[in-house]
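ok new one. same drill as before - structure tokens go in, u give me an amino acid for every spot. 252 of them this time. try not to just spam alanines like last time pls lmao
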């Protein structure tokens, strides 16, 4: 490990994920403001449950599943791709991915923000939720797979589709299946057959546009992509038809 002022570098080559995560927490408790992780290759649970606002972890390589799981406050930047389950049940903090990511990003996410430059896999935003002023946000620069926003109960997802010319391809099938809260913003209009039965596609209003503009500005600054170019295209939103879509299936 090499120390440079308030930053320390940890070489993760060959380290078991438990050893690596113990080292990360130890160095944060010692007061380091930034930790640079190099040679990361599939180690899971990086940032799990950590509460260190205003601290930052830089990851070079490919972190494994459940990056930032249960995280309560921390900034993580991934200079590469990430695997499945990023931000699983995340409470607060920020994750920035300069590549693409896998499935079930933001599962049960309760707060914080995730920005991804590239594409994401299936079931992103499944079971996201919000409470009063605590609203989790996911912004995806590329496309998303099937079951985007499945069973969403809250939160906001923004899909920009910057690498896709056809609107219909910015997300997969069954978008917003089971949705009963939250909003999905799409940069382009998807056809009806892409929507789950519980979601409906509408034009955005002024409040929606303000929210989108705020987060696209952050996205454009992180990834050095021209803000005005992103905002030239029309946005639409998917919201739930009903807050209790399966109410008739139960006896109460």
């Amino acid at each position: 490990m090499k120390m440079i002022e308030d930053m320390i570098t940890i070489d993760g080559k060959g380290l078991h994920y438990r050893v690596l995560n113990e080292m990360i927490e130890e160095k944060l408790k010692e007061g380091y403001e930034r930790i640079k992780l190099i040679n990361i290759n599939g180690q899971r649970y990086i940032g799990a449950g950590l509460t260190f606002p205003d601290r930052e972890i830089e990851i070079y390589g490919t972190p494994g599943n459940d990056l930032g799981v249960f995280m309560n406050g921390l900034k993580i930047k991934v200079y590469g791709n990430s695997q499945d389950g990023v931000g699983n049940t995340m409470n607060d903090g920020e994750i920035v991915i300069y590549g693409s990511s896998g499935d079930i990003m933001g599962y049960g996410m309760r707060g914080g923000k995730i920005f991804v430059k590239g594409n994401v896999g299936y079931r992103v935003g499944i079971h996201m939720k919000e409470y009063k002023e605590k609203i989790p946000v996911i912004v995806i620069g590329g496309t998303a797979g099937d079951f985007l926003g499945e069973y969403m109960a809250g939160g906001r997802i923004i899909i920009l589709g910057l690498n896709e010319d056809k609107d219909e391809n910015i997300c997969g099938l069954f978008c917003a299946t089971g949705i009963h809260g939250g909003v999905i913003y799409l940069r382009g209009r998807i056809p009806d057959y892409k929507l789950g039965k519980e979601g409906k596609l509408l034009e955005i209003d002024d409040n929606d546009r303000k929210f989108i503009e705020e987060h696209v500005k952050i996205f454009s600054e992180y990834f050095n992509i021209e803000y005005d170019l992103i905002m030239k295209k029309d946005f639409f939103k998917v919201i739930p038809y009903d807050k209790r879509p399966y109410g008739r299936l139960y006896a109460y």
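The two ends are 59 Å apart (CA to CA). and btw The chain is about 15% helix and 25% strand.
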